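User: Can you predict the 3D structure for this chain?
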Amino acid sequence: MSSAPHAPQTPAVPAVSSIAPGSRPRQPSLAQLRAFAAVAEHLHFRDAATALGMSQPALSGAVSALEDILDVQLLERTTRKVLLSPAGERLAARARTVLDAVAALMEEADAARAPFTGVLRLGVIPTVAPYLLPTVLRLVHDSYPDLDLQVHEEQTSSLLDGLTQGRLDLLLLAVPLGAPGVSEIPLFDEDFVLVTPRDHWLAERGDIPREALRELELLLLDEGHCLRDQALDICREAGRTTGAAVTTSAAGLSTLVQLVGGGMGVTLLPRTALRVETERNEQLATGHFADPVPSRRIALAMRTGAARQGEFEQFAAALRTAMRKLPVRIVNG
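Assistant: Here is the predicted structure, written as structure tokens:
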């Protein structure tokens, strides 16, 4: 008995492969990207860990984990220093872009909430902070009780870095800045006053010509203070030559006026600083310039297109009203 012929077999079709959820490539975490960006900036594990407020082993582990996820060596480690690999240099810029985008996302979320709530990180220059902060703090306390104001006193260059990098939200400082991506909201102009020893020939005069600055022994703040640069600009406009004696003697205005009281020279002070710095020193006198009086402009500065721009403009308007009692000329925005 013959058996029935076998049906031809159909070639097997390979099954469609699927990737199990657990086998998918992992994504870098924000903590790992922040760790790598900090090391790329400081090129030093300890300094980077300090900047992030984390332990050095945790930082090193985060960077190593990122290298494993990306399957790329980001750093070249030696016993003495840390260098970015060629791939690390390229990816550091990408990491910063991602972190900036996340910061912008958080800023948008903050702006979606009611204005004048949450954290406001305000940067202030040293030649403004002691004289304007009492007014600023009183305004915030009385009008914006839900605003968590955090104040950072730094020099202009550091404040601008903090603003553009997202570490700070708003600046209170002298302008113009001429910084790309930064918008200014003017608050007021204030005159400069000449501070002299009590027996100086210009003491208490109200009509001092700018030309008098040409030969005076002028005391200035250290390098890096915008007030030093403004004073030098005023002197140059008055025709002061580079050969005229200029002594850099102080890191702050309080020390500067003490040196003036000791007979070491004269200095320029903004009017908002005059009462605080000279009121209790009987060895000091003041003199006022004839028109046009040298002055500086104080403003708020923010990132151009900031999510909280409307809020910051309202804050500026409230500040102008609060500062009308100061010896300044309010500038309407």
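The CA atoms of residues 27 and 220 lie 53 Å apart. Residues 1-23 have pLDDT under 50 and may be disordered.
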